[in-house]
Amino acid sequence: MNSRRIAAGVLALAESVLGTYLGYASRTSSLGALPTYLFWLSVILLADSLLCLYGIRYAFLVAALLSVIILTDSAVVPLTDYVHLALLAVSLASMVANVVAFRATSRLSEQAHPMNLPVFG
How far apart, in whole angstroms, are the C-alpha atoms of residue 11 and residue 40? Predict the structure, then answer.
């Protein structure tokens, strides 16, 4: 697994942890900073980020889509603390990294392919 995919998986994991923390904090306090469904989206992203770290290609696409939803919905809510600002920054970075990791191919070039042996005779 290449470094792009590892970085995308780690960023998705960080985003899911921050989103779950903020979602749980807003559910238990009277502030109501984030909607309840963002908490559940963060929990789904937590499971998906583990699939990203495992190396499943389409998990990066799902993580990018969940990052877009979390980013747009949490950008509408007014900032309450620095953790919310960190969620916005990590969501943006995670979205970009997951799209790059999804588009990255792990194909061998024609010259490096093991079936492309020199023919003698």
Answer: 18
- Only one residue has tokens 């990294």, namely 97
In this prediction the pTM is: 0.78
pLDDT of the chain along its 121 residues, tens only? Answer: 588 888 999 999 999 998 888 878 776 765 555 677 888 898 999 999 999 888 888 999 999 999 999 888 877 777 677 888 888 899 999 999 999 998 876 665 666 666 666 666 5
Beta carbons within 10 angstroms of residue 36's beta carbon: 11
Helices (H), 1-121: 3-28, 36-54, 57-76, 82-103
How far from 34 is each of 24, 98, 111, CA to CA, in Å?
9, 23, 52
Q: Would you tell me how many other CB atoms lie within 10 Å of the CB of residue 83?
A: 13
